[in-house]
Amino acid sequence: MKEIKITRINHVGIPITNRQKSLPFYRDILGLRIIPSQVDSPNVIWTQLADGAMVHPIETDNPTGGASHVAFQVEDFDKTLKKLEELGITIKEGPGERFDGQRFLFILDPDGNRIEITTGNNLKKNNRTTDEWGYTSND
Asked: Which of 7, 42, 95, 111 is most open to solvent, judged by the fewest CB atoms within 10 Å of its CB?
């Protein structure tokens, strides 16, 4: 493999300070649909566009503290992981797997920005549901 093959932007993480203040903007004004979170982190709200791309508003007390990131979906996760290792790029978090089977890892770009590398979503079924405020539970 000569390079990592990105197939699409999977999601973008956007820091917010207050769910009740910010979520109506994303949900009601921009029209993003709330979907069940696939991680055990109640501060991350999973929303989705019609084309399947996601926006994750992330509730935080420190909006400049690293919640912001873009997630690139790759064609072959294992080959990408191997290429990152060959290039000496440090894996900051992961690799891991979410409830829906999506695999992920985090790296930093040369300026210290968090970059997530993922597979596709919904690779496994699960019984997670969400309420109107994006709080997810297992049913």
From this structure: 111
